[in-house]
Amino acid sequence: MQHYRILSVAIVLLMAFNCNGQGKDSTASEFKLSGYADAYYARYSDSVGQGNYQKFAAVSPRSGQFGLNIIQLTAQYTSSNIKATATLQYGDIPASAWSPVFNMIQEANVGVKFAKHLWLEAGFFKTHIGTEALLPKDNFISSLAVITVYEPWFQSGAKLTYVPSDKFMFCLHVLNGYNIFVDNNRRKSVGISFLYTINDKVNIGYYNLVGDEMPDSIKTSHIRFLNNIVFNYQFTPKLKALVGFDYIGQQNSGIVDPSKFASVYSAIVTLRYQAIKKLGIYGRFEMMSDHEGFLTGVIKDANNQLTGYKLTGATLGLELKPTENSYIRLEGRDLMMDNAQKIFYTDGKFTNSRYEAMVNIGMWF
Fold it and tell me: Residue 121: inside a domain, yes or no?
C-alpha cells in the first residue's frame, strides 16, 4: 500500500506542476507529461507455482493470470541549455527485474549543455546496453530475449553526449557499475555509445561497458567487458530487420579453473512485416551461450557437470494497432536449453524446453 500512496502523491504533484504551466513561459523551454501502461495475460509450460515469477522473469512474468506489466508516468523539462527527466513506474516488470533500491524510479536525471552539440547529464538512467529496449512499446516484440534479461537494465552515473548531426551520436558513460543504482565497491565502470546512420535505410550502433563488480574484499581482478553491436535495416517500407550481437568476457571466472578467462556470446535476429495498415507480423531468433556460467549462474546438468546456460529460442507474433499510440499483441515462443540442461518442469517431469504464449495490450500518451 505504501507504494500505491507514493505513486499517487507523485502523480498529483506532477500534474499540478504541469497545470501551473511551468516551463511554458517561452518558446525555448517546454514541460511535458507522458504516460504508458501495458497489461497482459500469459501461459507458460514450466510449472513454477501459481503467482510465482517465471525463469528469466521480465515482461509478462506470471503464468495463468492477468497482470500489469507496467504503468509509468514521465515528466520532462527541456530548454536550450538545460533538461531534466523523471519517470516513476509500478508493475510486474519493475517488481521482477528492477533494482530493489529505488524500485519505483525508472529514470531521474538532469543535464546541462555547456558547448555546441555537447551535453553533460547525471543521475539515474535506463541502460545504454542492448539490442532490445526495456519496454514492449519500444520493441517489435513484447517478450525479451534471454540475453537482454541478463544485461544491464538500469544505471547510475554521468554521461557526456556529442551529437553534431542527425547521423552521428557518441556518448561516454561513467557509472557506479553493472545494473546497479547504488555502488557496491570503490571502482567505477565506463562505457561508450556510438550510433551512425548510414542512410535512410541503415544504421549501426556499438555499445560497451567495462568494470569490476566484485566487492573490495576480493583482490583478484574480475574485469568484465561487454560489447554490443546492433544493425537496423529497412528492406522495404513494410519490412524491417533488427540484428544484434553480444560478446561479454570476464577475467578469472572459470568453473574448473578459476584463473580462466570466461566469455558469453549471443545473437538476436528480429524481423517485422507490416502486412496491412494496422496489422504487423513479427518473428525473432535468439541464441546465447554462457559455458562458464559467470553471467547466468552455474548449474549442474543432467550429466552431473557444472555449466552455465546455453539456449536457443524462436518467437512468432501478431500486432494490431488500433491507433498510433496503442497495440494489441499475440505472441508465442519456444525456448530450448542445451539437451542436458533440464531446468523446466512440465507434466510431472523435468525438461529442457519451455513453451509460452502471451497477449499484451498497451497504450501511451
Answer: yes
d(CA 247, CA 168): 24
Would 12 be classed as within a structural domain? no
User: How far apart are alpha carbons 347 and 269 in whole angstroms?
Assistant: 31
- Under DSSP, the state recorded for 261 is P
Residue 113 carries which side chain, given as an amino acid letter? K
Burial (0-12, 13-18, 19+ Cβ within 10 Å), 263? middle
Grid cell digits, residue 87: 519517470
Closest-CA residue to 108 (of 181, 1, 186) = 181
Write the CATH number for 153.
2.40.160.10
In angstroms, the first-to-last Cα distance of the chain is 26
Count structural domains, the chain. 1
Contact indicator for 82, 28 with CB cutoff of 8 Å: no
Q: pTM for this structure?
A: 0.90
The pLDDT tens digits along the chain (365 residues) read 555 454 554 544 444 444 444 444 445 689 999 999 999 999 999 999 988 999 999 999 999 999 999 999 999 999 999 999 999 999 999 999 999 999 999 999 999 998 999 999 999 999 999 999 999 999 999 999 999 999 999 999 999 999 999 999 999 999 999 999 999 999 999 999 999 999 999 999 999 999 999 999 999 999 999 999 999 999 999 999 999 999 999 999 999 999 999 999 999 999 999 999 999 999 999 999 999 999 999 999 999 999 999 999 999 999 999 999 999 999 999 999 999 999 999 999 999 999 999 999 999 99
**How far apart are alpha carbons 150 and 337 in whole angstroms?**
16
Domain around 157? 2-6+30-364
| Within a domain: 25 | no
Q: Would you say residue 13 lies in a domain?
A: no
DSSP letter string, 64-123: SEEEEEEEEEEEEEE-SSEEEEEEEEESHHHHHHS-STTTTEEEEEEEEEEETTEEEEEE
Residue matched to cell numbers 547510475: 156
